[in-house]
# Entry
Amino acid sequence: MDRYRISRRRFLTALGGLGAGLLLRPAWPDRPGRKPLVKPIPASGERLPVIGLGTSRTFDVPPGSEQSHALRPVMQAFFEHGGGVIDTSPMYGNAEAVIGELLGAVPHDRPRLFAATKVWTWGEQEGIEQMQRSMQRVGVERFDLIQIHNLRDWEVQLETLKAWKAAGRVRYIGITTSHGRFHDELEVILETQPFDFVQLSYNIGNRDVEQRLLPLAQERGMAVLVNRPFMRGELFSRVRGKALPAWATEFDCTSWAQFFLKFAVSHPAVTCAIPATSKVHHMIDNMGAAYGRLPDAGLRERMLQHMQAV
Ligand SMILES: NC(=O)c1ccc[n+]([C@@H]2O[C@H](COP(=O)([O-])OP(=O)(O)OC[C@H]3O[C@@H](n4cnc5c(N)ncnc54)[C@H](OP(=O)(O)O)[C@@H]3O)[C@@H](O)[C@H]2O)c1
# Structure
């Protein structure tokens, strides 16, 4: 009888927790058989879901620890809600190893996974060894995409990446930055070099790349991954306590996270945004931006004006 009482109390507590979870869950269209919005990689026509997953800081936890176990439901929610693109780097501490651990623990459809990492070192041999280590850590036989991180030693690393791509050891090659001070140099590189992807910072609070880099990527037929779509979380501070405008329903947006993500991925040059999160309810919220309508040019202008006013 005592055992029954305890388990009943636990049951009711669990039920209460479930209720709270449901309340936290943002309202977004939850139709069976629905498919996430996708955009094509210009180089191949292969289509990627417009919302991916970044792993800087959030996935840099000790592998095999309580913290890495706590990320399992985050990864699970990502796949369950149509995610595919995962972006990491040897620069992000344990993140590659933690992704490898989670991919081994969380059921997913391998063809839907689009695994992207970076090379971030000086020297040809160092670059090769780093990419080999990344494959072991993430547990993939080949990456879908390897990007040169922050332009580091790009001329040397590009030669290796071109050779790896020609040999079928990587499917696509790219280059990244999140620093405005690299934009001039990146522009010159993109004008002449054969990258399939470029990764940049772009969000409703920082639109520097709209001037030259996004049009150039489009002109050169390069896919664009958007990093820092939330400005590292700063955008949420700007709208704290502010209600989402009622007209956000015109592009099926039910939260500020979706507002920011839909702004980023509705730019015609952008292929996919890679927000980072360590929380399941944030993941579900973010993945909601991969569904429904995207804002058109008129609504994008309205979003900008609204952000200037808040
Ligand atoms: N040069 C490069 O190659 C480069 C540079 C920068 C970034 N990146 C890549 O881009 C990814 C994204 O950039 P980022 O991580 O710097 O910043 P970000 O994605 O703009 O922001 C991440 C922050 O937003 C919070 N957040 C996420 N979803 C939220 C939600 N729904 N509601 C409220 N808060 C939310 C996260 O906290 P919680 O954990 O609490 O959700 C985290 O603090 C990186 O992880 C990395 O993969 C690449």
Observations:
- DSSP finds twelve helices and ten strands in the chain.
- The longest helix spans residues 2-24.
- The pocket of NAP is lined by residues 54-56, 58, 87, 149-150, 176-178, 199, 227-233, 236, 257, 274-279, 282, 285-286 (CB under 6 Å).
